[in-house]
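Please fill in the sequence for the structure shown.

STRUCTURE ENCODING:
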């Protein structure tokens, strides 16, 4: 993936959004993921380190190599881990500036791979998954987490809000990605040659009784993500200013008293089979 392929951009606003998302959803998305002491783990597309912090916390004895195509993101990731992880934890993370399609590692270098919110931005996610098998030892595991914007359900329902979400989906598709990729994880991993593919939904639901999720996910993660593509949606002629503003206003109502919001992530774990 090139830096230009990341439809959400590399602003400070986006870095904060990614941090809010990771911290709010850590218990939901990282449950069941804890790498054993002594294992080598490659985090593919670590970005600003939003997920790296939680990988370090869950596997205090694992050695993590975090790779990203953006040097600026890697610098932010290093600073984030140093600031938020346990003292000394940053020494167990190795940072690598590289494209996931051309990784500078030998064959079978890692025991586990962790790929979160990366495949959705790639024009050929199956090819990327197949290529990653080279650096994963036989019997090693890959964990993949992706969202699916088609899983967003909310009250009050609104055609304008759905149209605003649709703008983001269309823009991501035009950039070569797929904001609906979560539903495809099982066939993607199977077609890429992995075995024992297990996929499970991880659904987040927020209403007034869960204020941390309303703020951390509905407002600061999902709505913030949709809001960020306003200029691109207007420039592409996908909407009008009036329709866009109506859609965002309706989305915000789902975070008010009486509103509800639900979204499903998909988490897959698969095994790299023995070499033929």
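FILLED IN BY: designer on duty
SEQUENCE:
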């Amino acid at each position: 993936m090139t830096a230009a392929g990341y439809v959400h951009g590399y602003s400070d606003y986006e870095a904060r959004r990614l941090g809010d998302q990771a911290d709010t959803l850590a218990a939901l998305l990282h449950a069941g993921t804890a790498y054993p002491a002594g294992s080598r783990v490659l985090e593919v597309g670590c970005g600003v380190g939003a997920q790296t912090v939680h990988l370090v916390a869950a596997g205090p004895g694992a050695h993590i190599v975090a790779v990203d195509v953006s040097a600026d993101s890697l610098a932010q990731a290093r600073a984030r881990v140093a600031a938020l992880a346990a003292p000394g934890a940053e020494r167990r993370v190795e940072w690598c500036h590289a494209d996931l399609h051309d990784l500078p590692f030998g064959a079978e270098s890692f025991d586990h791979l962790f790929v979160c919110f990366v495949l959705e931005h790639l024009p050929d996610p199956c090819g990327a998954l197949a290529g990653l098998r080279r650096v994963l030892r036989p019997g090693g595991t890959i964990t993949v987490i992706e969202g699916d914007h088609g899983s967003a359900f909310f009250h009050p329902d609104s055609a304008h809000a759905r149209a605003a979400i649709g703008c983001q989906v269309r823009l991501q598709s035009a950039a070569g990605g797929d904001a609906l990729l979560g539903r495809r994880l099982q066939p993607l991993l199977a077609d890429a040659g992995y075995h024992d593919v297990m996929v499970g939904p991880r659904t987040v639901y927020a209403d007034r009784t869960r204020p941390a999720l309303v703020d951390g996910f509905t407002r600061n993660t999902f709505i913030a993500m949709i809001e960020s593509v306003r200029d691109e949606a207007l420039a592409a002629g996908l909407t009008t200013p009036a329709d866009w503003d109506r859609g965002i206003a309706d989305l915000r109502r789902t975070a008010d008293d009486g509103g509800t919001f639900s979204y499903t992530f998909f988490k897959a774990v698969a095994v790299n089979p023995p070499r033929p």
